[in-house]
Amino acid sequence: MRFFKIGLFIIALILGAYAASMYYLVDESNTFKVEKEINYPVEKVFPQFNRLQNFTRWNAFFSSSKTMRIDYYSPYQGKDAALSYHDPETRSSGEMYIRYHNENRTLRMQHFEGKEDYPTLIDIKFEPVGAERTRISWTFHTPKQRLMSRISNLWTEDDFVDNLDKSMAGLTAILSNQVEKEYMLSDIKYDSLMVQQEEGQLILGMNVTTSNKKDALYKNVLKNYNTVYNFVTSDLGKRHDEFGYTVILTDADNFKDNEVSYFIGVPLSKRSGLSDNSFNFRTVNEAQTYTIYYSGSYSARIPAIQKLLARAKKDSMRHGELMQVFLENPQEGSDVLMKLSLPVYR
User: Fold this and answer.
1) Which of 79, 88, 321, 324 is most buried, by CB atoms within 10 Å?
2) Which class for 327: exposed (0-12), middle (13-18), buried (19 or more C-beta within 10 A)?
3) Torsion sign (Cα): 97, 101, 103, 104
4) Is it true that 25-184 and 194-345 share their CATH fold?
């Protein structure tokens, strides 16, 4: 009995010391600010925050879970837009609201986590830094914590900053695909050979060998385009602005062969686990390219390819695999809109 009383006394001392340290050393709520910059104009960045269906696609708090269910509520964007979420795997749930917005300037969000009565307030400010760059400033106000729960405020800021770093990477990946597609389609000069510097890419796709007789090649391309598209959107759950244009990698002069081998796929920002052995990743290195934009039937693209090869030969350049990029989705019976790029080296 004596040892029991001593034990209780020691526990009481420890709890008292803990409560005193929480009362005097840790604030009941926390406020902190985080600033990030992104290489896209504010009119491109703001809609990714203001529309909650966009926001949850790149924000790591939501996008990192494969089991989280999210419901969105009208008006879906701007003031009074709302969502609720539940993740059975982590047993987390909550709600988020947009309480105020000023187009391309500021947002205020409220995040209720679990059964908390008080939300985390998130004020976001958007500031243009030149024509093509935006500074994003987050100010977080965490809810008041009970005395014995205040210890969580010691690591709350680190958790938020870590989430923001992952989220900014996701936002950059989505915007890079959107802006690249818009830029390509707005600045096309057909049939003119130009020199470009192509960035490296990670491409998810499949290897194919097929006949090159009559229309057999294009029919095979259409079939495998649909296979890749369905796998990326359905099996991997990717949305249109999470991957780039469909690409075919092939030997530049194989159009003369009776049988053609090629790799068809789409650029992704990072690797992921694959459930189908038919697909694999290919890495395309950064390179200088000779490039022609082409519009017409798929079979009539050959003179444009020959023009690229002739220029490489004239300049005494070695070349790599030809990249055929579909700037519009290929369709049966329709012309194609393509970018033909031949990597060249000394």
Assistant:
1) 324
2) middle
3) negative
4) no
pLDDT tens digits, residue range 209-221?
999 887 889 999 9
d(CA 344, CA 320) in angstroms, rounded, equals 6
Q: Which two tokens stand for residue 266?
A: 């789409």
Query: How far is Cα 44 from Cα 65, in angstroms, rounded to an integer?
Result: 25
**Residue 81: CB atoms within 10 Å:** 22
CATH class given for the domain over 25-184: alpha beta
Structural tokens at position 153: 């405020």
Does 194-345 carry CATH code 3.30.420.10? Answer: no
CA angle 97, 70, 158 (to 5 degrees): 65
The domain spans of the chain are 25-184, 194-345
Largest separation between any pair of C-alpha atoms in the chain: 99
Distance CA 211, CA 258 (A): 6
**Cα dihedral 194→197→201→203 (10° resolution):** 10
* Global model pTM greater than 0.70: no
User: How far apart, in whole angstroms, are the C-alpha atoms of residue 224 and residue 212?
Assistant: 15
Q: Which residues pair with 117 in a beta bridge?
A: none
